[in-house]
Amino acid sequence: MNRNRSSIISDGAFLLLILACFVSIVFTTGNPNLYLQNIIFLNLAFLIAVVTYFTNVTTGLLLNILFIFGYGTFTLYQTVVVGGLIGTQNYFWLIMTPIFTIATWLFTYGNRQLQAENEQLVKANESLATVDAKTSLKNTLSFQKDATVFMALSVRYHIPLTLMVIGVKYWDEIRRMINEEQLMEAIHDLSKMNQTSIRTNDSLYLLNKDNPMWGMLLFTDRQGASIVINRLKKSIDERNRDAYAEKFRIELDLKMGAVEYDAQGIANPLEFIVQAKKQLEYDV
């Protein structure tokens, strides 16, 4: 509802601004004798509108007050000193200049409201999304939900559950050597490779995209996780020889660690991640 209101305000103000420009141009060109004078006032109206756009309505209204005071002084001079008559010309710009200011402010207000609402929607989407858009992998939020269920199943049915985490060695140095597009492509390739190395009933998560770290929830013990680790290391060695060296002109090396779930020592999914990350320190 608020978004529709902001959109209506923005659209209405834009149409009002276009209409004011059309009327002002027609009025300016309608009297050739006062063409230069009207052009000056039209430019002043536009200038005040531009200042309002980049500041706020208070500044615009203050400038309008100054304009009205100055225009009133000019009209008084024309009437008393020059002997001119007060006509439509004298009232037109007193009305149109504030209209330009109000229309510009409403247009700016509506756009800023839409931008603020869009940022809120983006943040809400990021906080609620459970899948990474580029890799189609589950994220940390999804991991917390799934791990809570798997941890409960592990305790109830005495099924071993192991979290294996995977990182990229020397990532900070690598990101200085290849561009952003290649970085995302490397993350995508590594994600696909990790996915093909697990069973269908195991789950893979992208826990960190900035400094890539994947997590695998494996229904196996620590010894079984070692088999997966060896399989992944073999796969990355083969890809370094065949694909990565040619595609990225660098070797991508993985570091891996795993920890088996212990209900006494691991209270929640985030603690599960912390315990598994500590194991990465031993893979050098």
From TrEMBL:
The keyword RNA-binding does not apply. Keywords: Membrane, Transmembrane, Transmembrane helix. The chain crosses the membrane at residues 12-29, 35-54, 61-85, 91-110. It comes from the Bacteria. This is GGDEF domain-containing protein. It comes from Paenibacillus roseopurpureus. The lineage of its organism: Bacteria, Bacillati, Bacillota, Bacilli, Bacillales.
